[in-house]
Specification:
Layout (H helix, E strand, L loop, with lengths): L12 H14 L6 E5 L2 E5 L1 H7 L1 H8 L9 E4 L4 H13 L9 H11 L2 H13 L6 H10 L3 H13 L1 H4 L3 H4 L3 H9 L9 H12 L8 H5 L9 H10 L1 H4 L2 H12 L22 E8 L2 E4 L2 E4 L3 E5 L4 E5 L12 E5 L2 E5 L2 E2 L2 E2 L3 E5 L4 E4 L11 E5 L2 E5 L11 E5 L4 E4 L11 E5 L2 E5 L11 E6 L4 E6 L9 E5 L2 E5 L1 E3 L3 E4 L4 E4 L7 E2 L2 E5 L2 E5 L13 E5 L4 E5 L10 E8 L28
Helix pairs in contact: 2-3, 4-5, 5-6, 6-8, 7-8, 14-16
Length: 594
């Protein structure tokens, strides 16, 4: 039996109706509201606006004054942008271009037209260039568009030279230009280029003298060539009449000649940018034992995973004179703490500035110690446990680099020496270690920094094999205690488990993390055996160990840290204990740039 009903569908009817209504709008037929944007008036149909824009639906259907007025004035939107919005409301089409995409994005966000907003956002991702990346970055940050922000920010970083030549850069606000120039990831070969960009921006400002000092604080003045700074301080009007800026420039010129810790510059100003440096495995001091021959090493060498090569940094004999010290990296600096000198515990602390290739003596620790372990978290260095030569220590102290000062914190629950120490988030993890009677502690002592409290976790998995701690994300790898065994502690579950063994049995080796991989250097296979030259690398993603090139010399009981060093590395010979006077020819050499 055939149905007596049949539905007829004409798919083009809706589009046809909209085209007709748009023609009627253009001819002002049956329009019932006039929208004014800037000085331009647009005749419209309320029903079309309300059906396509949540903004207008609320305006015309709620008990608002505009719901009954014949004329409505819009504020904060350009007439050209509203014309595009109106055209989209009536036709469902919009012509996007580099010139209008940002304005249409803002307008469609205001009127709640999500389809058009998304289209404009996707268009902005594809049209980022040197002339608009800063505007797009500012816009995407303001309107919470993380993908666009990421693209625009990376483009601005990679193309710093081109971007800073554009008018858009000159029109940045003081806050925005400081953020841009402060960025550690901008792609520059020399800091001179950042200095030039800062001066160019300042020259464009109506009252630059009031802004000069703030902007120059974003430039890492110690890494601008001294001879260039001298010329600029003489020739540049913005600088030669500004006593404070001239003082900063003078300090920057002499920065790498001084044996102070140069507190006049911020931590960021004293570090080269990432694009002018690379991350390496740095190895310090230690001992070399071959047969009956035994000698202390004062070498500093590093392994570059990018080139698979070892290189050495030349320093004066005796520069790394302590034994049984602890070494830790903080930013671009390496701190060597305590140890023994002439068989006596010391509390001396020296820092190695990799970007100046120079040692500087800092404030002593509060307690002389050796066989302790240092770690860094939140720009502070923690010295944990150890021994003073007569007993194990439960003392823990931390160093604040901003004031060059050590301070005591809460004591360990159990006094230990030779612990493995690592940090994660706001916690300090102390694994194992020895008591005075050389009993191995099978506990994890956990210090919660905000609460200033220690707690204990006991585990039979914590033993002599847990000599070093290497944190990667939420996992802490434990290894290097006279065995091939490698364990992993999960900070989220407090569980200890096994992963792939090392290729070689090692004790008194160096362990550090670079680029998400663990690098193990040297050590000994047997307690009285020869020092090892071999090194290996562990990839957590593949759970696999691989050999890497051998060290320049066999070593054990050495320090090992990850560190970023300048691409242009100086080779001066400087001792941490012995200050010296530089020659006049050295005074014209840039610390980080050739």
């Amino acid at each position: 039996m055939q149905s007596s009903c049949s539905q007829f569908v004409f798919p083009l009817q809706v589009a046809s109706n909209l085209r007709e209504m748009n023609l009627m709008r253009e001819q002002s037929l049956l329009t019932d509201v006039t929208i004014t944007a800037e000085d331009r008036e647009f005749e419209c149909h309320r029903v079309v606006l309300a059906s396509s824009c949540p903004y207008f639906k609320a305006m015309f259907t709620y008990d608002l004054r505009e719901s009954t007025e014949r004329k409505v004035t819009l504020h904060g939107i350009e007439a050209t942008s509203f014309a595009q919005i109106l055209h989209f409301a009536y036709t469902g089409t919009c012509m996007l271009s580099k010139q209008n995409a940002a304005d249409i994005f803002v307008a469609s966000d205001l009127f709640g037209i999500l389809s058009l907003r998304n289209a404009a956002e996707n268009f902005l991702k594809k049209c980022v260039d040197s002339s608009n990346c800063l505007q797009i970055l500012r816009l995407s940050s303001m309107y919470s568009c993380p993908e666009v922000t990421k693209i625009a920010k990376e483009f601005a970083r990679q193309n710093f030279i081109d971007v800073t030549q554009q008018n858009e850069f000159l029109h940045l606000s003081i806050d925005d230009v400081i953020v841009y120039l402060n960025d550690d990831d901008i792609n520059v070969a020399r800091e001179d280029l950042v200095f030039d960009a800062a001066i160019r921006w300042l020259r464009h400002q109506p009252n630059p003298m009031n802004l000069t000092q703030r902007v120059l604080e974003s430039v890492r003045l110690p890494f601008v060539r001294p001879e260039y700074l001298k010329i600029q301080s003489t020739m540049e009007v913005l600088l030669n009449d500004n006593a404070q800026c001239l003082q900063k420039i003078s300090e920057a010129i002499s920065y790498h000649h001084s044996d102070s810790n140069c507190g006049t510059f911020s931590n960021k100003q004293r570090k080269p940018r990432k694009r002018t440096s690379r991350e390496v495995v740095m190895v310090f001091g230690g001992e070399t034992r071959i047969g009956s021959t035994h000698e202390a090493s004062n070498d500093v060498s590093y392994y570059d995973p990018m080139t698979s090569r070892w290189d050495s940094i030349s320093i004066l004999p005796g520069a790394v004179s302590a034994e049984a010290f602890s070494v830790v990296s903080l930013g671009y600096e390496i701190y060597l703490t305590g140890g023994t000198v002439n068989s006596k515990a010391t509390n001396e602390v020296t820092v190695f500035y990799t970007y100046l290739n120079k040692w500087v003596k800092l404030s002593n620790m509060l307690v002389p110690r050796y066989h302790h372990t240092c770690t860094a978290i939140e720009d502070m260095i923690y010295a944990v446990g150890g021994t003073n030569g007569s007993r194990c220590l439960d003392d823990v102290e931390r160093y604040r680099s901003d004031v060059d000062k050590w301070e005591k914190i809460e004591k360990l629950v159990h006094a230990i020496k030779c612990p493995a120490v690592a940090t994660h988030k706001e916690k300090l993890y102390v694994f194992g270690g020895f008591t005075d009677s050389y009993v191995i502690s099978q506990s994890i002592q956990v210090y919660t920094i905000p609460d200033k409290t220690w707690t204990i976790i006991s585990s039979p998995m914590i033993d002599y094999t847990c000599a070093h701690a290497a944190p990667i994300n939420s996992k802490i790898f434990l290894l290097g205690g006279g065995s091939k065994i490698v364990k992993i502690y999960d900070t989220e579950t407090d569980q200890v488990s096994r992963v792939s063994d090392m290729l070689e049995k090692r004790d008194n080796c160096g362990v550090t993390v670079v680029g998400g991989k663990i690098f193990v250097t040297g050590g000994v296979s047997e307690s009285s055996g020869p020092s090892l030259m071999t090194s290996e690398c562990y990839c957590p993603l593949r759970n696999k160990w691989e050999r890497i090139p051998e060290m320049p010399r066999p070593l054990h009981r050495h320090g090992s840290v990850s560190m970023r060093i300048p691409i242009y590395q100086r080779t001066d010979r400087v001792s941490p204990r012995t200050p010296r006077t530089m020659t006049s020819s050295e005074e014209m050499t840039s610390p980080g740039i050739t």
